[in-house]
Amino acid sequence: MRVGIMDDVVITGQGCVSPLGGDVASTWARLLDGENARGPLGCIPVEGCRVTQGAEAALPDLDWLSQKEIARLSRASRLALPAAQEALRDAGLCDVHGRSRVARLELSLSTTANGMEFGERFLKRVWAGTRRGQAAEIARYPSQQQVADLQQHLGFSGPSMIVSNACASGANALGHAADLIRGGFAEIVLAGGFEALCELVFCGFDCLQALAPEECKPFDIGRRGLMLGEGAGFVVMESRAHAARRGADIKGRLVGYGHTTDTHHITQPEPGGVPLEGAIRQALARSGLVPADIGYINAHGTGTPFNDGAEAAAFARIFKEPEIRISSTKAAIGHTLGAAGALEAVFSLLALQTGCIPPQINTTQPLEGMEGRLARPGDLLKKPAVLSVNLGFGGSNAAVIFMNS
Amino acid sequence: MKTPVSILSMGVSSPGGATTAALDDMAEWPSERVAEVTTAGAAHRVARIDLGAGPFNRWRMRPRLRRASPLSHHLMEAVSQALAARPDVDPKRVGLVGAFFIGCIAYSVRFYKGLTSEGRRFASPVLFPETVVNTPLSHVVCELGIGGPVYSQVGDTSCWISALRTASLWLANRDVEHVIVVSGEEFDPHFLDVMHAARWFGRLPETGIAEGAGALLLGQDAVGAIARITRIADGYSYRTRVQAVKAGRDCLSEFDASLPVMATATSWMRNISLTVLAGRTVPPKPAEPDFDGLGVAAAWNTIRAVGVVQESPGLRLVVPSWGLSQQIGAVEITS
Questions:
Q1: CA of A354 to nearest chain B CA: how many angstroms apart?
Q2: What is the pLDDT of residue A2?
Q3: Per-chain mean pLDDT for chain A
Q4: Residue A238, SS3?
Q5: I want to staple B156 with a disulfide (CB 3.0 to 4.6 A). Which of A144, A325, A367, B9 is the partner?
Q6: Which of A186, A11, A243 is nearest to B166 (CA)?
Q7: Which 3 state secondary structure label does DSSP give A127?
Q8: What is the extent of the structural domain holding B17?
Q9: Overall number of domains in chain B
Q10: CATH number (domain holding residue B165)
Q11: A153 carries an active-site annotation
């Protein structure tokens, strides 16, 4: 095995909030049990939509904040804050008050809809001709507000980068953090993604008829669409030297990152998955690994006809080993858009740490080439590396590869 | 930022025209009074781009761009100019970083208005994809054959500085030979309501609102460079006016104290900048902008600074970006 160019980028903490749980342990346990968070949505209005179900997260208590402070937060911040704090705590970087021990901490973040519920309410007030409440609402809408919330309530400052490459954003945020460390621009980065369900985006996918009217079935011949979800995933990434200096426990490594742009269509990938293949091969080349080193792929697997077909085609060309296992965790937690790549990175790291692979739920008739490769309950990881891939509107493709410490 | 980055070419789309020189004559830009949506009485000076007029109309006939947002057209114009100025640079080996504050506001508002007034079942599948933040850059990549990595970054009006840092990272890591950094904004009347609600109009002399785009082609090769970026200071965040003053001072402390600092602040940040810049040299040229391009303003200011250092060999100029809602950054431009 060759040595890759990202060998010094390590992960020392991880955290998440998902529709399956408010932290890493509960989410992972239910994911391995094959549970599914699909249900009626109470947090956004969906009456009149073709599909009215999705995967809604229970908002965790933010016990270190006052009720007044919590009332000011967007739903996106209420998902991001506990996930980011869990990652910092896991990395040994939280003090007894739940605030960061690192005063200047770089952020590499992803989202697609920011605090959209405040933007929606602002517009309704504008159209109603009332100024009352507009100021508070517009202040909480933009993405930099979630940055400000993280910095204020977790007690740090520093540069921030928010990438919004649609559904590939989460993987981009982690890849960018690795690039910052590799380039010597930062020694430690809090990287992650967050996304809250909102009316505008839900209706957008509904009008495209991209939402599944029944269970989401990734890579199934009878797949009928995706299930929208929400959540947040965060990791603490450091240079190996920085982690060693502070005696941090290394949870894994990000060893490869690739990203490409597919110009086939704004909302549909190139059917053969060629641009995605390019991103995966870039990540493999940077990691110094070969396809046979990958034991598990956390696929994008939205459950839409176009996405899954392109993805399966790309996988078939690159990965020839029959023992590789593939699953899309979106069937369980939904498609969390800007958070997807970050959440799925956490699941990929957990697969490496525990040796367990999340099973592919709901799929009964696999696409050609995927038979025998979709993960089943109890499947164990048998190779040293895990790949996570994401595709997004606008043709954004990203692939990240993780290994154990 | 570890090593200087060369600025190889530039591109501009503005209400004053599609040239860098247009940024020197903002006072001459055609403008109109546009009313806020909430109360039709309050009107503001706005400069818009006529997409039906040349040279901007050259993108309208491209099939992929027929329904694209105005923002996509602004970006197309600026990026294509930057590429056209350096035909020796292969677009397939160029990365692209976009910096956005407002993003696709016109189509987002239309889409949401449609679903709230007509019913959710009648939301427009044509409009929705054009509301996605990275769609405009996707159009640019497709139409101009750009083949490198692409990021759409969002943030406050200082997001441009963060995007420049991303570009310098890609160049330092040798992930790509050249990177275009572009910022753009499209105007929609609802943004006047945003500015009103955020109290960004203030009591100061009126600065107009403008739309458009600005782009820089960056590389590490010094041959053919028109200027250099020699330092980037990013990530000085604030939540209050007191913190904003401290953030401004901390940011500018990253630069040699003897360097002149360009006057770029708008809205409520003007007073903050006056406090921070006390004792610093603020050159008379380029003058304070007559129009605030919000997210694109930082790009335009950087392009104006390049024009100044080109005229004065040896000059180093600090160009701050006084983000209106979260952070302050700055870049040092050297001839």
A1: 33
A2: 43
A3: 95
A4: strand
A5: A144
A6: A186
A7: helix
A8: 5-219
A9: 2
A10: 3.40.47.10
A11: no
